[in-house]
């Protein structure tokens, strides 16, 4: 459960709309879908994530007394709304792509079917809980594609946008293929492996770098990754080599050195040579500092001898694409399909399903957007029922399963879609029935 | 208080370092400073923010039993660390720039003086709690500079990176000059005015736009801002005019229309003409959809008749600069100044103070970076004592006071620094004593 479980974390307009719906007895069944209108130019696919936190929110959401008191005193609302909110719980249906599913523009990722007020009261937090994990899982999957089997650790908590972002980013990046996180709370909360050794301040606090390394070897004998760039990388590496000799007598080993500044490829090559020449090929090189998928790819091309990366800011802020053009839109109300036609923001109407089609080699071929009521003969439906009448249908999916799913799904991408720098699009076909419904909807609501 | 008050929200390396410090009796006094190494290219100044949440964290931080149990079972730590953490509370000194102070690169914004382990245990959350509010307050101040006295409302919760980011962004943007937020929880928590009316789904759920407008007028008689672009802006405006006629008979008024798509300047001009021609100059025009300071400036140049803006994603993700190159670095330990010399990440050593110098016209002239022990004859010291021996020295500063401070500080910017698109730098002079200490430090720690 996240620390914010109240539906009070919402936009005021959700409540003013619900006030009007209650006043005018508009509590019929509504269908809303969450989707991404257009992928950022730097993204050829997105990774579904955040569903677990959303389901948790939906099954716990309720207003507290002090929240209701605040709303009652705000001057915006009548007693009927406050009474309604005091009894509020989510009793609707949720269908969703399982976390770790790859998806594309205009595909519903989560579909909510509930009374109109219920569906609205959860909107803001739903978007808030889905967008960010999708951003981070996608960024992490791109890093994984670039890094192949090198070790990747999330270092991003400090530069994440607040606490929850730091915790959700650790989960989303692990889900998408990272090996662990520096974030202790996330480690405890989600059972993610945690990693960490020392900062520059540790070296600086000692009278000498050599003393700092020695002290650390005493206190963390099985966790010896030494930061060597506080003063000078090359001299730092020499001190590591000296320490390695001393430790050998005690049967203690140095796992790796860490480089956190300068030209990582250049420094790593120099340090690798130093380590190898002194007979320490077993000491790995771990790099951090402004790492992202582009830098990893560049370092790969240079054949930089780097065994793993700590990735912080660029991961947890999704720096090159810090938001998604995503939306949660009304598709049907009281049994009638609806559609937004605003310039550049038009939607496909009706309750929908996505069917995925593969090539004979197992790679993605195309997706088809259909009405939820259609049953095409081919393709795999991507949205699965996860909540019925407000109750979860299954236990949370273990993170290990989600990691396997992402790995398997990434292997289905065509080479064009795995390209990290060049935009490629994926075909979304619209079923004839959906096209027909769109036409009918436009005729009915001609503005 | 934020929902995350545990120091467990940290990077593992803080704890592995503290383990070593305890093992080697390194618990002397340390001085750390938080500063920004380099401003993003799109920022000529930054606005200090987030201090209130940091002080709250520092005066409440403690480890819970289940957190200690997790750490004890992690395999990384000895009993002496767990015992130390079980008694942990922050007992040090904090000096900081008051929230709302404008600052520049390499200036300490917050200075922590505490035992080395204490100063480390708060590092990660300190950076996490300061960086994001600074980003948002700065973005908001830029929007305020562009918008002059037009109304600005934070609409960003849904696309903020998690819940805490949404709440902190509402506070930071209000502090920096916004008029309110759509975020109900932030409104309740911080006493910020909340605003909101309707979404497109509200219009779509009704059989017609006219019916939607009428229903809303019944339920929110004093909060009538009508969204007119669901189907067609111009026809939406006609319906608003019809409704205005009907409402006049009941002495009820429409405050504004909202446009949320398309070319905002073009649509606003057309709608303004419609409203004026029909005798409704009192109905305002409120615009949203991908608004930021650049768009506001462009619309200002076009003299677009827009009275206020809702700003979401670009504000709460600080989209054009989603992170700061900021750091929290050891400057002194056991009475001896320290310095990091890593490539591109070198720091000025010692415990420091910033003195601000103004021109005779009241505008910013230059800042001087001095040793904390220096007492220059001129200039205003920017860091103020806020915590002594773990206790706050004063009550929280009211948001209204912070708003006034930002307004006053923005008026001190030179024209070059207020330019939103063209980079300008501000002079930071280094005192002779600090230069001398830097030289001495390099000689002592020659790597």
For the biggest sheet of chain A, the summary is: 7 strands, antiparallel
Under CATH, the homologous superfamily of the largest domain in chain A reads: nicotinate phosphoribosyltransferase
Average pLDDT over all residues of chain A? 96
Going across the biggest sheet of chain A, name each strand in turn: 13-12-1-5-3-17-18
Number of strands of chain A: 19
**In angstroms, what separates the terminal alpha carbons of chain A?**
43 Å
> What's the alpha carbon Rg of chain A, rounded to whole Å?
26 Å
CATH secondary-structure class of the largest domain in chain A: Alpha Beta
Provide an overview of this structure.
With 447 residues, chain A is α/β, with parallel strands linked by helices. Chain A has two domains: 12-136 and 321-444, nicotinate phosphoribosyltransferase, CATH 3.20.140; 196-287, TIM Barrel (Alpha-Beta Barrel), CATH 3.20.20.70. Helix content of chain A is 40%, strand content 19%. Chain A contains 17 helices and 19 strands. In chain A, the strands form four sheets. A seven-stranded antiparallel beta sheet of chain A has the order 13-12-1-5-3-17-18. In chain A, strands 7-6-11-10-9-8 form a six-stranded parallel beta sheet. In chain A, helix 13 links the parallel strand 10 and strand 11. In chain A, helix 6 packs parallel to helix 13 (293-301). The longest helix of chain A has 25 residues, at 123-147. The mean pLDDT of chain A is 96. At the A-B interface, helix 1, helix 3, helix 6, helix 7 and helix 8 of A face helix 1, helix 3, helix 6, helix 7 and helix 8 of B.
């Amino acid at each position: 459960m996240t620390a914010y479980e109240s539906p009070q974390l919402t936009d005021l307009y959700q409540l003013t709309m619900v006030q009007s719906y209650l006043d005018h007895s508009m509590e019929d069944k509504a269908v809303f879908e969450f989707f991404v209108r257009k992928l950022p130019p730097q993204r050829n696919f997105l990774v579904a994530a955040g569903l677990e936190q959303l389901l948790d929110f939906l099954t716990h959401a309720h207003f507290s007394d002090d929240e209701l008191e605040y709303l009652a005193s705000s001057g915006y609302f009548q007693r009927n709304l406050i009474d309604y909110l005091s009894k509020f719980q989510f009793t609707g249906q949720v269908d969703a792509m399982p976390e770790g599913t790859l998806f594309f523009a205009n595909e519903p990722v989560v579909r909510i079917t509930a009374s109109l007020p219920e569906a609205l009261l959860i909107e803001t937090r739903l978007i808030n809980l889905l967008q960010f994990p999708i951003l981070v899982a996608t960024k992490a999957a791109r890093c994984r594609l670039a890094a192949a089997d090198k070790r990747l650790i999330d270092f991003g908590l400090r530069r994440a946008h607040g606490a929850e972002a730091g915790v959700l980013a650790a989960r989303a990046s692990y889900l998408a293929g990272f090996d662990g996180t520096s974030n202790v709370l996330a480690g405890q909360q989600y059972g993610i492996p945690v990693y960490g050794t020392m900062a520059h301040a540790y070296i600086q606090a000692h009278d000498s770098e050599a003393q700092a390394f020695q002290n650390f070897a005493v206190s963390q004998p099985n966790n010896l990754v030494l930061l060597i760039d506080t003063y000078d990388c090359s001299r730092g590496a020499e001190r590591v080599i000296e320490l390695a000799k001393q430790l050998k007598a005690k049967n203690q080993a140095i796992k790796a050195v860490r480089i956190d500044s300068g030209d990582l490829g250049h420094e790593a090559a120099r340090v690798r040579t130093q380590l190898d020449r002194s007979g320490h090929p077993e000491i790995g090189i771990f790099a951090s500092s402004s790492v992202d998928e582009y830098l990893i790819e560049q370092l790969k091309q240079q054949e930089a001898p780097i065994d793993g990366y700590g990735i912080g800011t660029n991961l947890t802020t999704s720096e090159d694409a810090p938001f998604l053009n995503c939306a949660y839109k009304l598709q049907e109300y009281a049994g009638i399909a609806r559609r937004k036609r605003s310039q550049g923001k038009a939607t496909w109407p009706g309750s929908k399903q996505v069917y995925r089609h593969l090539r004979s080699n197992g790679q993605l071929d195309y997706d088809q957007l259909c009405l939820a009521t259609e049953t095409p003969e081919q393709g795999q439906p991507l949205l699965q029922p996860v909540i019925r009448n407000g109750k979860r249908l299954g236990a949370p999916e273990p993170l290990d399963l989600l990691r396997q799913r992402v790995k398997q799904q990434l292997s289905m991408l065509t080479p064009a879609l795995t390209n990290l720098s060049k935009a490629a699009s994926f075909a979304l076909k619209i079923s004839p029935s959906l096209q027909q419904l769109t036409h009918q909807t436009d005729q009915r609501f001609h503005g």
